[in-house]
Every structure is written in structure tokens, then in C-alpha cells.
Amino acid sequence: MGLKLFIMAWIAVLLGSAPAYPQHGLTVFVFDGDTILLKNGDRVRYLGIDTPEIRHNGQKSDFMAYAARKYNRGLVLNQKVRLEFDLQKEDAYGRLLAYVYRANGEMVNTLLLERGFAHVMVHSPNLRHFPLLLSCQRRAMAMGLGIWQKKIARQESYYTGNRKSFRFHRPTCLFGRKTDPRNVKIFENRRDAFWNGFSPCRRCRP
Fold it and tell me: Which of 65, 70, 137, 173 has an alpha carbon 20 to 30 Å from 181's alpha carbon atom?
């Protein structure tokens, strides 16, 4: 009996030490297309997507970056949202990682993809909604919406993808060359890589 009580007490301690993650929150600020601030002080990074970067210090922002932020503001600013978590709850910067839902049940992550304001960017093991997110992106790509309007000035003859990281690289990228041969996937063009749910390497920027 004493051992049983000890085990139950230890389990209670472990559960009590786990951080409590909010299920709902009021959005008080929108940083960009995929990051928001809740009233309780938590920053939330949308899972499974990446929107064009708003750059500072005089640097030129990415194509459609401000349009993505404007659309995101219209969806969530001063609105109560619901957070759904995957296996990883936070990133290296202390931001919560979540699928964010409006009061009417719409997932904001998918809305941004459907309008062409984001592309799929998944990180294993957070793959719960990967098929749904990819289908939304493909619709926007097929219609040429948002970021999919932009013409690429320089195309490589092929690109290398990493099946483990879901990233694709230029043939000359040092990070791409380090990919385990068992995980390499070759794409004829950038569109093919995006169509399959791969996102561009941040170093070689294909």
C-alpha cells in the first residue's frame, strides 16, 4: 500500500510540473502573417505554414509579406481564438506552436494557404494536419493566388529534397549535399517541390 501511494504521489508531481498551455486566447497584436500575441503574453507561431518575411533595418520584405499580415489581422486581431497543439508545443524561441482556429471553427493556417499568403512548412513530428494543409496549398497554386503569382528569375536544372526535413535545396547547397542519400528526392523544378509539401532551404533560398 505504501509503494502504491508513493507512485501515485510521484505521478502527481510529474503532472503538476508540466507546463499548462492555453486552449484559448484573445489576439492583441499581429506580428506578421504567421505570428500573433495573445493577451496573456504568449506569442503563437502558426504550425505547418510559413508566410513571406517582413524585414527590418531597411531590408526589402518578401513578396506579399504585408498583404499576408493584413489578411491575418483581419482574421484574428481582437478576436478570441482556439489553439490546437501537435506533439511539440514550443519552438526554440519560446513561442507556442499551434493550429489556430477562429470562433466559427475555421483554421487560420488553412485560410492563409488557400488565399496564397503562405506555403506549407512542416517539421517532424508535427505532421497531424499535413495532408489538409497541402491540399489547401495545392488549390492556391492551381489558381495562381498570392505568392504563386510571382515569376522566378533563376531556375535551377533540378532541386534536391530531403524527405526527413521536408526541405528542398539548390544543387550547390552545402546543406543539401549533406542529406543522407536514402532521404534524397529529386525535383525537376521549384513548383514540383512545393506541390509535394517541401519548403525552401533558408540558406540557399531556392
Answer: 137
Is 114 one of the catalytic residues?
Answer: no
**Beta-strand relationship, 199-200 and 167-169:** parallel
| Span 85-108, pLDDT tens digits | 999 999 999 999 999 999 999 999
Do residues 27 and 116 share a domain? yes
Active-site residue (options: 95, 115, 167, 170): 95
C-alpha cell at 141: 497554386
pTM of the full predicted structure? Answer: 0.89
d(C-alpha 71, C-alpha 115), whole Å: 9
Angle of CA points 179, 185, 186, to nearest 5°: 115
Can 95 be counted among the known catalytic residues?
yes
Cell numbers representing residue 112 in the block: 492563409
Q: Are residues 51 and 128 in the same domain?
A: yes
With CA atoms as reference, report the closest residue to 155 among 171, 137, 141: 171
User: If we measure between CA atoms, which residue out of 188, 64, 196 comes closest to residue 121?
Assistant: 196
Residue 122 vs residues 49, 113, 119: alpha-carbon distances, Å: 7, 13, 10
Q: Is 139 a catalytic residue?
A: no
Same domain, 108 and 140: yes
